[in-house]
Structures are given as C-alpha cells and as structure tokens.
Specification:
The complex is a heterodimer of chains A (416) and B (174). By secondary structure, chain A is an alpha/beta fold. Chain A is 53% helix and 8% strand. Chain A has 17 helices and nine strands. Chain A has helices spanning 6-32, 38-42, 51-72, 88-105, 109-117, 121-140, 145-148, 158-162, 166-191, 203-223, 228-244, 252-260, 274-279, 290-294, 299-303, 319-330, 342-350, and strands spanning 86-87, 152-154, 249-250, 265-270, 285-287, 309-314, 336-339, 360-362, 374-376. The longest helix of chain A is centred in the N-terminal third of the chain and has 27 residues, at 6-32. The two termini of chain A are 26 Å apart. Chain B has eight helices and no strands. Chain B is mainly alpha-helical and 174 residues long. Chain B starts with 12 loop residues before the first helix and ends in an 8-residue tail after the last helix. The chains are: A alpha/beta (416), B mainly alpha (174).
Chain lengths: 416, 174
C-alpha cells in the first residue's frame, strides 16, 4: 500500500531517480504556468493577474481531492504521509517575512528556481539572496530558539480544528477555492490589463471543471475515511501472519525486560473494563476503551511517541488486546505488541499466596473468553507488589525474545 | 509581459494548476511526502559552509542535523527534487522558447534597482522560509493539500505580508 519505502524497494539510486523525476515535473509545471516571470507573480498583489492564486489553489485542491480519494479507497495509508507539523507562530511570522520578500523580490524559492533555469537575471539574483537569507537564519536562530520551537501542535489537521469530518473539510476547501477563483476573475476584470498570455478556456468548460472538482469532493465525503479496523483490513494479508505465527505476543518475562530496559520506553495500554482495571492492573499501565481506539482517538498521541517506544496491549486474555492490535496496526503505530495470555496469565505466573494484600484467588471455574479469571476481595489497582514488573526483573524466564525496535522510515519534510 | 514574439503563451492557470496538483499527488502517493524548494537551498548553503567551516557546522545546533560530522548535507531526497526543478524549468523554457537572458521588472524602475531589490527580497524570503520551516512549495502547497493547520495559517500570512506592503512599493511593479 502506498506510500512506498522507496529506498528499501528501489535502492538509493532508484529512489533518488524518482525524486529527480518528481522535481522535473514540478519545475516544468511551474514554468508552463509562467512562474519564471517575476512581474506576472507580483501582479498578483495588485489584483491585475491572479495566476498565482489560481495555480496554487487549483494545485492544492486537485492534490487534496486525489489524496483523500486514494485514502478512502484504501490505496494510500494517510497516517504514513508526511504532514508538516504545526508551529503556529513561527510559521505566521515567517510567512509575513516571506510576504515582504515576495513583493520586494518578485519570487518565492520554488519560482526562483525556474527563473534561474530560464536564465532570468533577476531570478538568479533573487536565488543568491535567498541563499544569503538561509545562511543568516542558520547563524542567528540560536538567539531565538525558544520562539522557533514555540506553539508546537504536531500533526494538526484542519478537520480537527473545525470539528468536521475529513470529507466535509475537503468539500469546504474546494468550495472556498471555487469562490476565490470567482472573485479573482472579478478582480482581474476590474484591475487587469487584459490577460493576453493565458489561453482562455470557455465558460462551459470552466464550469464543468468546477463541477467535476465539487463532485469528487462529494464522493470523498460520501465514501468517508476508513476507520482503523477498515485500514487494517486493507493490510490484513501482510499483518495476519504476525498474529497467527505469534510473533507479536510477548511472554510476561519479556514485558518485564522491556520495562527495565532504559533504552526503550514502555507504553502499557490496558483495554479492559474500568471494573477489571480497578481490581488489578500492571503498574504504570493506562486504561483505554477499545471504542476510543476504534475511532482513532489515541492515534495522534501514539504517532508522536519517540521511536524507542514499545507499545504493549493488555486485556484479560488476548481477545480484546488482539482487536486493539489490529486497530492500532491499521493506524500505522510501530513496535506494537500484546501481553501473551493477558492479565490472567500474569496472575497465574506471579500471584502466589500472600502476594495479594486484601486477597485474590483463581475463579476456580472456567470463565468466558475475554473475562477476568481471578477473583478479588477489593479493588487493588496496581498496589499489590505483583503489579510491579521491576519486582521480577531478576527472575529467570524461558522465552524467545520477540521485540525488535523498528524505526519506520517515515518520510520527513523537504523543508527541514 | 516582455517576452520575445515567438515565445509561446503560458498555459491556462487552471490547467497548469491541475497539472501541478497531479504532480503533487503523485509525489505524496509514491514517496509519502510533498514538494519543496527551500530545503534544497538550505542544504546547498550548509554544504558550502561545511567546506569552509566544518567545525562550526558540528557546533551550531541548527546546522548539526544537516552537516554534523560526516553527514553530507547534499545526500537528501530534497536536493534531488531541487535539482529536478531546475532541470524541468530549463527544459520547459527551452521547448516553449522562453529561455532568454533578461530581467523582468516594472516600467518605472531601472534594471539595477530591480537587481538590488531582487537580492533584498531573496534575503527576506530565505530567512522567512527557514523560520516558517518551509516555503510556498513545501508548506503552503504541500501542507495545504494534506490540510495541515500550520500550513494554511502560513499561507494566509504570506499573502497578508505581500498585500500589506504592495501599495507602498507599487512603484516597483506598476
């Protein structure tokens, strides 16, 4: 499923060839739009020639509709797609400074590249100025680091901000762009000097294009974005063997090792009911509802965990932890495991006479799958010593270690 | 527009935008990341600095990531995209007969003034793009398409900055 780990699939040379091709297509699209011409770009700010707005917004909405259509169809794992993290204020202040640079110099970095390539002297000088600006930034950012790293909001998407569905946001952005195009043409009619160099498209064609975009956006909305479990189904063929071959079920002894390993960060997620969790849970585990995971409620937080985080899912046996594993795997969470045998096995192993102050004992009768097979006289939480993995760190267990810290080669941004 | 008589007309902006959008989508689909330009420039600067003052690159926090120790700042995918952008721009200008040494400016300023302002504008642009962690390509275009809140705020800030100043510098362009 897309996106692809290009370096793994094609080798470095192959991957770099792909990037070169993308760059060539990018440069050519900017050039045919007339973006090597500073005056054409600057006229945007005098409402004479709205090419910049038209090209940029058409580019954005076209790509956006295709991306979320591919994601809705299960062809593209959107969580693996790089979204520039939001650093709100540095972005806004940097944007304002760039606006000043744009109106003074007539280009932005991308357009200056095509101006250089088509031998525009002003473009070449602008490009050299940009290099100087980049140099100055590198030498001065140390003095305002705090601001540079301020107002960090991570992977923060418009649907979250607006409280809309992804599809609803896509439709809204398309409608906004169409409105902007309409106003841009009005402005050109009023301030423009008669655009002669852009080949005109007739109105019916324009309307058909606008209608087509809106229809695609409606389709994205109608299809909806896949839930975590639906995403898992798209990748089940690759991932089911991990479950069946028991490569991700960790012996309690290994969980204890991970807890003691300072090079790893253990994240224990307990997906049992509040009642069972209150009766007993492993120290430092956190309870989450399966339903929260099913709607992707913890995805953002887990994607933000450091690369050495090992997430271990806990339920009474393995039933619900396996469900949770599928959901989080669908969401693209790495280094994800299940406590083998769940809390029942943990208690079978460690709860010896007197280890449960307040009292706990096996149910004695078979319980249904997914249920707690031990009885407690009181809600002990993580108070009993047996809830603390550190207690057993010197105990010898016989198991095959399964944890392999994998760092997903997540695509990073081109701007860092 | 001052271009020679035989140079071809620019493409209709909606068609060019659609083309750009498809390229951007393909970039996201195949590589998981969007387009960019300022990142490639930053790495070019870092490579230049690394030749002259390698020890400096190992000490300054912001630069270590790109050029600390043995790290070659040019060994990064964005450098290939930047190189490709130059190549694509060149080929397209050649095919459309727009490859021409010239300076584009408003009618009321001299070529020399235009050159000075181009450098000055570039300095602002380069500085701002690093502060905003991306330029019009990497932040506004790419981040906008994947609905990043920061990218949209950034995009409005760029336009706001430009429009706010446009009236006062109208002599440059009109």
């Amino acid at each position: 499923m897309a996106p692809f780990a290009l370096v793994d699939d094609l080798g470095k040379v192959g991957a770099y060839a792909v990037y070169l091709l993308i760059g060539i297509a990018f440069g050519a699209s900017l050039e045919v739009a007339g973006f090597a011409n500073a005056r054409k770009l600057a006229n945007q700010f005098y409402l004479k020639d709205m090419t910049v707005l038209k090209v940029m917004f058409t580019g954005i909405v076209t790509a956006m509709v295709l991306i979320f259509l591919a994601s809705a169809a299960g062809l593209l794992a959107f969580n693996d797609v790089y979204v520039p993290p939001t650093y709100l204020w540095p972005g806004i202040v940097g944007g304002l400074i760039m606006g000043v640079g744009f109106i003074l110099g007539g280009f932005c970095p991308g357009t200056s590249l095509v101006a250089v390539a088509s031998l525009k002297v002003d473009g070449i000088l602008f490009f050299l100025g940009t290099l100087l600006g980049v140099f100055l930034f590198g030498e001065t950012v140390g003095s305002f680091d705090t601001f540079y790293f301020s107002s960090y909001m991570g992977r923060f998407l418009l649907p979250e901000l607006l409280g809309l569905s992804t599809g609803g946001t896509v439709l809204l952005v398309v409608l906004m762009a169409l409105g902007a195009f309409w106003m841009a043409e009005k402005a050109e009619g009023f301030f423009g000097e008669g655009i002669t160099d852009a080949r005109r498209i007739r109105l019916p064609v324009k309307l058909a294009g606008a209608g087509g975009l809106a229809a695609l956006a409606l389709l994205v909305m109608g299809m909806g974005q896949p839930t975590p479990l639906e995403k898992y189904r798209f990748m089940a063929e690759d991932k089911d063997p991990l479950l069946l071959e028991r490569q991700i079920q960790l012996h309690p002894g290994e969980v204890i090792q991970v807890a003691a390993n300072r090079q790893m960060k253990l994240v224990l997620l307990d997906v049992r009911s509040e009642r069972d969790f209150n009766l007993f849970h492993i120290l430092d585990s956190r309870r989450v509802e399966l339903e929260t995971l099913a709607r992707g409620g913890l995805t953002k937080e887990l994607l933000d965990e450091p690369p050495n985080a090992v997430v271990i899912l806990v339920s009474n046996d393995e039933l619900h932890a396996t469900e949770a594993w599928k959901m989080l795997t669908g969401e693209g969470i790495m280094n994800l495991y299940i406590l083998e045998g769940g809390i029942n096995r943990w208690l079978d192993l460690f709860a010896v006479e007197g280890a449960c102050p307040g009292g706990c004992r096996p149910a004695g009768v078979p319980v249904e799958e997914g249920e707690l097979a031990w009885r407690f006289d009181a809600a002990l939480g993580s108070q009993p010593p047996i809830a603390n993995p550190d207690l057993f760190v010197d105990k010898a267990f016989d198991f095959t270690p399964k944890v392999k810290l994998e760092v997903k080669a997540r695509p990073a941004g081109g701007c860092g | 527009m001052s271009h020679s008589a035989e140079s071809k007309a620019f493409m209709n902006p909606y068609l060019a935008g659609g083309l750009l959008g498809v390229v951007l989508f393909l970039a996201y689909f195949f590589t998981g990341t969007g387009l960019g330009a300022s990142g490639g420039m930053a790495r070019l600067v870092a490579a230049g600095q690394d030749l002259v003052v390698p020890r400096h690159m190992d000490r300054v926090g912001h630069l270590v990531e790109m050029a600390g120790g043995e790290t070659n700042p040019l060994d990064h995918w964005i450098v290939l995209v930047t190189l490709g952008t130059l190549m694509g721009g060149f080929v397209s200008a050649l095919l459309n007969k727009r490859l021409k040494v010239e300076t584009q400016k408003g009618p009321r300023i001299s070529v020399r003034q235009r050159w000075v302002l181009a450098v000055l504008g570039g300095v602002f642009m380069g500085y701002g793009a690093r502060l905003a962690r991306g330029c019009t390509s990497g932040q506004a275009l790419s981040g906008g398409a994947v609905l990043s809140v920061g990218s949209w705020a950034f995009m409005f800030a760029v336009f706001a900055g430009g429009y706010a100043l446009a009236y006062f510098v109208r002599r440059l362009w009109t």
